[in-house]
Amino acid sequence: MTQHLLSCSDLHISFTLPDDRIAEAVRGVSFSLDETETLGIVGESGCGKTVTALAVMRLVPPPGMISAGSIFFDGSDLLSLSEQQMRTIRGRRISMIFQDPMTSLNPVYTCRSQIKEAIVHHDIARPSEADTIIESILAEVGIPDPKRTADSYPHQLSGGMRQRVMIAMALSCNPRLLIADEPTTALDVTVQARILDLLHGLQSKKNMSMILITHNLGIVGDIADAVIVMYAGEVMEYATLRELFDRPMHPYTVNLLETIPALDARKERLTVIPGEVPTLRNIPPGCPFHPRCNRAMPRCAVEHPALSSLENGHQVRCLLYA
Questions:
Q1: Interhelix angle for 127-140 vs 159-171, to 10°?
Q2: Which residue did the predictor score with more confidence, 215 or 209?
Q3: According to DSSP H, which parts of 122-224 are helical?
């Protein structure tokens, strides 16, 4: 049996609400990732994408907790490791690019000192040798003046430059797995394309695996090998990229694809999905998507669908295919 680089099975993440009720932000999520593969996790804000990634890093913030399931990375059970053992993995073997580089970078330290901290902590190099590595990795991520950027504070850089610094920091210890959480948030379209091309190129060059989290299915189209579509904390659909784009099965996936603007089609209005993602307090009974679904049946309001396996490893959570 082939061992996956990363394997999450039946993952449940719960939060204790102010009224002491328990709400599950992630419910039964399972997926696997092999060496050098890219997995896209797609869904609207609030569907559980980021919390799932934080669980892999063992960084779910309180009052949240991983209440059930397993996470194995390179043969190690991450949920059984001590915090000290996890610190040797975070940044060294698994790195994460967080959503907003302006809040993720410390405003009172230069970019050089922040990257150096990771390099020295994981014994990649001595402090006296770290500067050469820092300027080299900044040049590798496409920064034209690495020395000047390294000695700059985050507020002195543009959004695209800050994002490149975050990528450099994540790659400074040559991780085997890179988690990119909405790496193009708040960037203009041309900068988004450059950042995505950069990530894709660096992944191939360094033979990394990658998890790309986004709300836009169009972003994963040129990068991912497989895609998970999440909604209300659950996997709605899981398939290879080609299979998902050629044969989207779940109505939610179909709706997400329809919201991607097409250059060859003239429309007066862009397509939108009516309604809103339910909060942890008001997840509806039955299929959580049924209040917004244009193919909902009466049974969808009362019967919760299981994740069904179809041909070619395609999985879908919908009563249309039960």
A1: 130
A2: 209
A3: 127-140, 146-150, 159-171, 189-206, 217-220
Instruction: Quote the CA–CA distance of 143 and 174 in Å, as a whole number.
Output: 18
Q: 263 Cβ partners below 8 Å, 6+ apart? A: none
Query: Distance between the two ends of the chain, CA-based, in angstroms?
Result: 29
**Which residues neighbour 239 within 8 Å (Cβ) at sequence distance 6 or greater?**
226, 227, 247, 249, 312, 313, 314, 315
* pLDDT single digits (tens) 252-277: 999 999 888 776 667 677 788 998 88
Q: Are residues 99 and 187 in the same domain?
A: no
Residue 103 lies in a domain: yes
Q: Which of 155, 174, 193 is the last residue of a domain?
A: 174
Q: How far apart are CA 225 and CA 240, in angstroms?
A: 6
Q: Are 176 and 93 in contact (CB under 8 A)?
A: yes
Beta strand pairing call for 22-33 and 209-214: unpaired
Are 207 and 293 members of one domain? yes
Q: What is the DSSP pairing of strand 234-240 with strand 308-309?
A: unpaired
In one letter, which amino acid is 182?
A: E
DSSP type of residue 71: E
Q: Sign of torsion, CA 243 248 252 258?
A: positive
Are residues 85 and 210 part of one domain? yes
Give pLDDT tens digits for 113-123: 999 998 988 88
pLDDT of the residue at 210 = 97
Parent domain of 201: 6-93+175-316
Is 196 in the same domain as 269? yes
- Report residue 2's pLDDT band, with 50, 70 and 90 as the boundaries: low
* Per-residue model confidence as pLDDT tens digits over 75-96: 999 999 999 999 999 999 999 9
Give the pTM: 0.93
